[in-house]
Amino acid sequence: MGFYQFRTQQKLKASLDEVWDFISSPANLSKITPEYMGFIITSEYLPSRMYPGMMISYLVSPVMGIKTTWVTEITQVRDKSFFVDEQRVGPYALWHHEHHLEPIKNGVLMTDIVSYKPPLGFLGSIANSLIIRKKLKEIFDYRNNALDELFGTYQP
To answer: Does the predicted TM-score (pTM) go above 0.85?
Structure first.
């Protein structure tokens, strides 16, 4: 029933090339995902850079350690500007994640827009209010901290 968007921004103390090189490598996703998620890439052939049409499979444990298969497709890529991943198999009725980069003074502004629809109709809407939205914020807060550790804290 419910359709939601989650948006977050982070300023990174790094060049556009450095940030793009890091986030466009699928192998780096596990470096910025909380350990409790049990995030494991299961794709057998993982190239060093993403490309449109690329499918990536994972195992994740978002709730109570229950393993779930998640498959995303990289649907759009504009070099050093943005990419989009969309869920093809997984826990959501809809998942569309835009990753945008923009050069700013002394760094890069990274904007994430997640458009999603939980499963189970009305029950999914309740789960979003009670759990899902908070969990997304927690995951992105973790990612922001991990990227700050990697690139350094942004100073205007």
So the answer is: yes
